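Predict the holo structure. Ligand: adenosine-5'-triphosphate.
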Amino acid sequence: MASVRIANVWKYYGKTVAVKDLNIDCPDGQFLSVLGPSGCGKSSTLRMLAGLEHISAGDIYFGERRVNDLPPKARDIAMVFENYALYPHKTVFENIANPLRLRGTDGATIERKVRAAAKMLEIEHLLDRKPVELSGGQKQRTAIGRAIVREPQLFLFDEPIAHLDAKLRAHMRGELKLMQRRLGTTMIYVTHDQLEAMSMADRIAVMHEGVLQQFGTPQEIYNQPVNEWVAGFVGEPPMNFLDVEVVDEDGRLCLVHPGFRVAVTAAQQALLRQRLSGREARMGIRPDEVRIATATFPGALEARVRVSEPLGGDMLVDAELAGSRLLVKTRPDFTGGMGAPCWVAFDVERWHLFEKPSGVAYF
Ligand SMILES: Nc1ncnc2c1ncn2[C@@H]1O[C@H](COP(=O)(O)OP(=O)(O)OP(=O)(O)O)[C@@H](O)[C@H]1O
Ligand SMILES: [Mg+2]
């Protein structure tokens, strides 16, 4: 097992800067997810950890050991990449068994380990097939099996379940998390799917355009996003953002919008007094932190239903509040139809405020 430290790492491809001055510390045995949209530098980071890509600047350590110049084979890692690279002429069984055969493991142990991995991955019935006879998701699970049986000091997974259907993906999220916790092997897991990162990881590194935006637990990333970009990327349906002015009313700071004028809490006011840099700001509130009703209630703001979408257990209401769009997640029995008036209120303990134009969070 090993801790991983990425220290001031840069990656250039010619003039393209794929990773900018990245710093991440992953303690031994943790499940770390690298999360971000396409092209943000996730795979480049993982490939440098694996030793498949030259590090343009900076250092990578496994435990105390600097591994910059260590070839992939000497790093004791197991990888699963987007292109799962199976041996085409070998069966699923032999593909999974391969690292054990190379190591000279005895036949009975190989049989036991391969079958246990295949069972967890629900591919026991495919062990005699060749890769050409598999779907993309089955190939991915075979590649995961091959990584698991190696029992390395570090797992490096790059979107390993992206090709699975939604139900199987949900199943595999649970299984991979369980496997990692059981083995206690450090895991670095790349994904663009925030739900995957949120549900599996101990810590998440959120990246955007090669830059680490935030590093924290799933709860920290969700509840205290450091900037508007992270706030908008994490959470589904996404956070609402409204342009507001911060106005001092007899010593009390209020957020003012054409549709409302609401005072911030005392704690929020204390934070704003220290840092406020201008009148204009962006208010952020998650769809499930807005109350909505078809009749008025104390403190309610009048809005209008644009359209509502039943989502089974919830109702997603797309509303308009004085020219701004507001998504609200509410109970499935909400009855407001298209164009109907509705009343909303914010949970002010839970709203966020971001500086303009930097997007940095005030709270
Ligand atoms: N071999 C390469 N040569 C040149 N540019 C590259 C190379 N590999 C990646 N890039 C560029 O570096 C940036 C980061 O790429 P990377 O593959 O790390 O992104 P990613 O976060 O893994 O994206 P995705 O989610 O699409 O897999 C992108 O702008 C990409 O075009
Ligand atoms: Mg990638």
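The chain has two domains: 4-233, 240-355. The pocket of adenosine-5'-triphosphate (ligand 1) is lined by residues 13, 16, 18, 36, 38-44, 192 (CB under 6 Å).
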